[in-house]
Each structure stands twice: as C-alpha cells, then as structure tokens.
Design goal:
This protein is α/β, with parallel strands linked by helices and 127 residues long. The chain has one domain: VSR Endonuclease (Endonuclease, Chain A, 3-Layer(aba) Sandwich), CATH 3.40.960. The protein has helices at 6-16, 21-30, 73-85, 96-101, 103-116; strands at 40-45, 48-54, 59-64, 90-95, 122-125. It has a five-stranded mixed beta sheet, with helices on both faces. Strand 3 (59-64), helix 3 and strand 4 (90-95) form a beta-alpha-beta unit.
Length: 127
C-alpha cells in the first residue's frame, strides 16, 4: 500500500475537503465500489497525493484540468507518472471536462483499466 509522510498526509486531508467539481462527480461513482473495487480519494503516496487510488487494481487516477497542459505541468506530470510506474502502478489521466460531459463513459474506461491489470503504463483518455 502506498503511504505518504505526515506532511503529505495532512495536505491530503485538506484536499479531501476542497475537491474540484469534476473530482466530486467522479468520487460519487467510485465511492460506490464499482466492480467491487475500493478507491481512495486524495491518497498520500510518497511525495505525491493521488487524486484517486485503487490498491487492488494498482491504479492511480488523476483528474486533469486545463492547467495541466500549461507551463511546466506536462513535465511535472510526467515525472509524477514515472514515480508511480516505478512502483508498478498504472496512471490514468482523465480530462476534467470529460468527467463533466460523460461520467458514464469515464466510469467504463476506469473499470476497463482496473480490470486489465496493465500496471506500469501511463494512460491518457479523452472522449
């Protein structure tokens, strides 16, 4: 199980109270344990906080707003994804707009990746 240190854990608790609208929408689906899988929200993982994490599926889900395509964010995201991949985890990046437009499709995509067990791959999905 991924864990973070005390500082990251405190920050994760704070982020759980301040989730974005797309994160809340996705959490409303994932908290029901689709496919019998338990997802955690704002889960501390080493120096990072995963938006959502499923230990059983070895899956990290990151909700990306438009800001993730600007400045140094693509490089920072790649570094973060590599850190997760080095630990045998799949990173699934989902555009925030896709969650708001097509939560059913996003849910199917999440479950397909959770079921596939393709650990260590970085996956981006847009509708």
């Amino acid at each position: 199980m991924l864990q973070g240190d005390g500082v990251v854990g405190r920050r994760a608790r704070s982020l759980r109270q301040d989730m974005s609208a797309p994160e809340i929408t996705l959490w409303q689906v994932l908290r029901r344990r689709p496919g019998g899988l338990k997802f955690r929200r704002q889960h501390p993982a080493g120096p990072y906080i995963a938006d959502f994490y499923c230990h059983e599926a070895r899956l990290v889900i990151e909700v990306d707003s438009e800001a993730h395509s600007r400045g140094d964010r693509p490089e920072r995201d790649a570094s973060r994804d590599n850190w997760f991949a080095d630990r045998g985890l799949t990173t699934l990046r989902i555009a925030a707009a896709d969650i708001q437009k097509n939560i059913e499709g996003v849910t199917v995509q999440v479950m397909n990746h959770a079921a596939s067990g393709r650990a260590g791959e970085d996956i981006s999905w847009t509708s």
